[in-house]
Design goal:
By secondary structure, the protein is mainly alpha-helical. It is 69% helix and 4% strand. The chain is built from three helices and two strands. Strand 1 and strand 2 form a beta hairpin. Helix 1 packs across helix 3. It is elongated, with a radius of gyration of 21 Å.
């Protein structure tokens, strides 16, 4: 985790944190994508929509077919997408918080 001091103080360099979060939540994204594909196929082929399976059930099926690595398919693209977005969001939040704190201080 990289911690940097920004001009408004207290800003975290979120690269390591966002990458870790993206990797830890990836199995749930894989499950969500699988559910969306199953639903899309059913609708496109005019079949009845299958009941939604439990997340753990789907995870077990993926592990049985592809191993644990199957839960982490697409790690690099996800990290490449999520890390910059989170860094921008948190930097904007910290800047906005500091801006309004200064604005409030001037008004009082």
């Amino acid at each position: 985790v990289c911690v940097c001091v920004c001009e408004w103080g207290g800003c975290l360099c979120l690269r390591g944190l966002t990458q870790t979060a993206a990797i830890l939540t990836l199995p749930f994204d894989v499950v969500k994508t699988r559910q969306q594909v199953m639903l899309g196929e059913a609708v496109a082929l005019g079949r009845t929509v299958p009941p939604v399976e439990r997340t753990l059930t789907i995870m077990r099926e993926i592990v049985a077919k592809r191993g644990v690595r199957g839960l982490f398919v697409g790690t690099i693209p996800r990290v490449a997408k999520v890390a910059p977005a989170c860094a921008i969001m948190m930097t904007t939040y910290e800047y906005g918080k500091d801006y309004f704190r200064r604005l409030h201080a001037r008004a009082t």
